[in-house]
Design brief:
There is one protein chain. The protein has two helices and 28 strands. The protein is mainly β.
Length: about 350
């Protein structure tokens, strides 16, 4: 028997209803998540991962039968005795670099952070024609509707953080080809079955082959050159996202997977031909490259790095680099990707 899990709005497989309205979720749905708060009817495709034994589906569930379909899933593939439910919920995808995330829905209020193209955030509501209310770092925030488009995102916990150990293809949940992934792309895993991982990559949701991915250490940092951000993970939890400045075009940061070589405080970084500067935190990971604070910088992220970037190091705001220093250990991975 096959059960069709459709991505079309207002349609669900496996559950009889999931109507998400402001501050209310259908309590009869066996995976209802009362933390979700949005202002319009929507949908969630829920995949149950890691088969061990069959789960009974309530008798009033709406099930759509099909003889053959490219978008069908064998129910037995998504059943176990302790369901790990993956909920796909409405979100917004950023369409430009340098988009401000604000504390309130107006351009005069505080800027919490800056988002870049392909960043995806869980949508709380469409606040009005000009703003979306989003979830950012467990807070309610606002982003201009001018620079985003509506897109699906995942409201489930990451179960593993991996990386592409070679170039490979990426497929959506219906098995349709999305595109190619470069080696060293970061892969956030939300579920697994047989030879595939269910993942989110650059705001897209789908599957990659397990054999194309490699392990990262429990404590790791991922530096994204294109978005000029550093993301810090601890035991599969994303504990920090900070803007950074990487190597300038003439001295770019090396791409690859590296180990933290050492950790030093109150030291000088010296290249006698070009610089001799003091730093409070120094986390070398690739010979002369490393993560460190930069007292001489007043802004991070964006396009600064092209002409005014580093000699290859990851220049990081002071408050953020102290957390990176406290979290990473000698031998922890630093993944630097495009």
């Amino acid at each position: 028997m096959k059960i069709n899990i459709r991505k079309t709005a207002y349609t669900l497989a496996l559950v009889s209803c999931l109507t998400l309205v402001t501050t209310k979720v259908c309590e009869n749905c066996f995976f209802a998540d009362n933390s979700i708060d949005i202002d319009n009817d929507t949908y969630a495709a829920s995949l149950i991962i890691d088969e061990t034994e069959e789960e009974t589906i309530p008798s009033n569930d709406t099930i759509e039968y099909e003889e053959e379909s490219d978008t069908s899933f064998d129910l037995d593939q998504y059943i176990n005795d302790d369901p790990n439910l993956i909920m796909i919920v409405p979100g917004v995808r950023v369409t430009s670099d340098g988009v401000n995330i604000r504390r309130e829905a107006n351009t005069d209020c505080d800027i919490i952070s800056v988002a870049n193209a392909n960043d995806v955030f869980k949508m709380i509501s469409k606040y009005n024609d000009e703003w979306y209310q989003i979830k950012y770092d467990e807070e309610v925030a606002y982003i201009s509707a001018q620079y985003v488009e509506e897109a699906d995102t995942i409201d489930s916990d990451i179960i593993d953080v991996r990386y592409m150990n070679e170039n490979g293809s990426f497929y959506d949940i219906d098995g349709n080809y999305i595109g190619d992934l470069e080696q060293y792309e970061c892969v956030e895993v939300y579920g697994e079955k047989d030879d595939k991982y269910f993942v989110s990559i650059n705001g897209n949701i789908g599957y990659v082959s397990k054999e194309l991915t490699g392990d990262l250490t429990d404590k790791c940092a991922v530096v994204d050159i294109s978005s000029q951000t550093l993301t810090l993970y601890d035991s599969n939890e994303k504990i920090l996202i900070t803007p950074v400045v990487t190597g300038k075009d003439s001295t770019p940061s090396d791409i690859g997977l590296f180990d933290v070589d050492d950790k030093q405080m109150d030291t000088n970084l010296t290249d006698y031909a070009t610089y001799d500067v003091p730093v409070d935190y120094w986390i070398p990971y690739n010979g002369g490259e490393g993560i460190h604070d930069t007292y001489w910088r007043y802004s991070y992220g964006g396009e600064i790095y092209h002409d005014y970037g580093s000699h290859g190091c990851i220049n990081t705001p002071y408050d953020a680099v102290s957390k990176v220093y406290d979290t990473l250990e000698i031998g922890s991975h630093v993944l630097v990707k495009h």
